[in-house]
Design a protein that fits this description.
Rossmann fold; alpha/beta; single chain
């Protein structure tokens, strides 16, 4: 996968935050070298987060996020502030834009506290430095810049690039589970919900990682699994299936065959697998009227037989004998307060970056609400969760 093809979820997310008229948008335009954001002397010009994928060496592929001002006012302003704070959940590296002429404000200080509280690496850019008569010394996390003259913009990029090692993702999806020569079989059902003419992102990423690691694999639909296994000269080390086909695939394989799903691979890659496995225990405790949040990280046209709104509720009700009350969210929608829910069932999160997944899991933990993802939940309801975790050496 080339840098230009790197999906948003795999890019370092750099968020630009600050008060209105601190020059955030001008600074974003200076860093990207493009007129990405509309700039104006009118306070509050940026009303919604603006995102731009680009390459910033040595960080590599990044996603730049320009956010609304955190001191916006009125009912609409409060919504904008809330949206800006939501972007914190997606941010891997933060830039706080401060009006150098006005200095650090209480709102800026509050934001810095949030950065530190979340362990978020950050840089404080004192913008409009060209208007200063004198420049007091700055702490190590700060530097003077001018989006108008370009002063300090290169240094800001260098400062951001210095976090490259810190932000590297050491995790693998599947390659670290295999030895040279091990064969993997990927089971990819093609049904009405499958995107026409292409594979979904988890399937693409697993294939690419196997190819990069020089590990052979075979791919088939669930209807051809038996024939595919017979065609191999030796049994595969691992079978990875779409979670929806878990039950059917498990019935075809010998009991000693290692089996997991794309969704469970992503649970380990993006989140805390242990938390999700523990959350699966709550499935059996659901009662009539319990509120269940079913959340998807992407937005798509829901079709007949949709997994989130149709199949999962049907499996859940068949497994528990209960009739919960469901709330469905997608994309960037995810409640700040999860306390009303008895359970959160989340998708594999292939379209969300690790920072946002961690934020959502943390919110669930803080609210004392169990959370599980699609793959773990489906494996649990089909009685094969323990088997699906063996490849990880997971003890439960």
């Amino acid at each position: 996968m080339s840098l230009q093809e790197t999906v948003s979820a795999e890019r370092v997310h750099i968020g630009f935050f600050g008060k209105r008229n601190a020059g955030k948008s001008s600074l974003v335009n200076a860093v990207t070298g493009q007129a990405l954001s509309v700039v104006s002397p009118v306070r509050g010009t940026t009303t919604d987060p603006v995102k731009k994928a680009m390459e910033l060496l040595p960080l590599g592929p990044v996603l730049i996020i320009d956010t609304p001002g955190l001191d916006d006012e009125g009912e609409l302003g409060e919504l904008r502030v809330r949206k800006a704070k939501q972007m914190l959940a997606q941010t891997d590296l933060a830039v706080l834009a401060v009006d150098a002429c006005a200095g650090l404000s209480p709102e800026d200080a509050e934001l810095l506290s949030l950065f530190r509280e979340r362990g978020l690496p950050y840089v404080v850019a004192y913008n409009k430095a060209d208007l200063l008569a004198e420049r007091p010394p700055l702490p190590p996390d700060g530097l003077y810049v001018s989006a108008v003259t370009g002063e300090g913009v290169h240094e800001l990029k260098e400062k951001l690039g210095s976090f490259a090692k810190t932000l590297e993702n050491p995790r693998k999806l599947v390659a670290d589970l295999l030895a040279p020569g091990d064969v993997t079989v990927l089971v990819i059902p093609i049904d009405a919900a499958a995107p026409k003419g292409r594979l979904i992102l988890p399937q693409q990423q697993v294939m690419r990682e196997l190819l990069d690691a020089h590990l052979p694999f075979a791919a088939c639909q669930d209807t051809e699994l038996r024939e595919t296994l017979c065609a191999l000269s030796r049994p595969p080390k691992l079978v990875v299936t779409d979670s929806q086909a878990f039950g059917k695939v498990a019935s075809v394989l010998p009991p000693e065959q290692l089996l997991t799903s794309f969704s469970i691979l992503f649970a380990r890659y993006k989140g805390e697998l242990g938390q999700l496995v523990r959350g699966a225990e709550a499935l059996a405790d659901l009662r009539d009227g319990d509120r269940v949040l079913i959340a998807e990280g992407c937005t798509h046209h829901r079709q007949c037989g949709d997994i989130g709104t149709v199949k999962l509720p049907a499996w859940l009700e068949g497994y528990t004998g209960a009739k919960p009350v469901y709330t469905f969210t997608s994309g960037g929608e995810f409640p700040e307060d999860l306390s009303p829910f008895s359970l959160v069932i989340h998708c594999g999160a292939c379209m969300l970056n690790a920072a946002e997944v961690a934020s959502r899991l943390r919110r669930a933990a803080d609210a004392g609400v169990p959370v599980v993802n699609y793959g773990v939940a489906i494996a649990k309801m089909h009685g094969i969760l323990e088997r699906s975790l063996k490849v990880f050496g997971f003890g439960g």
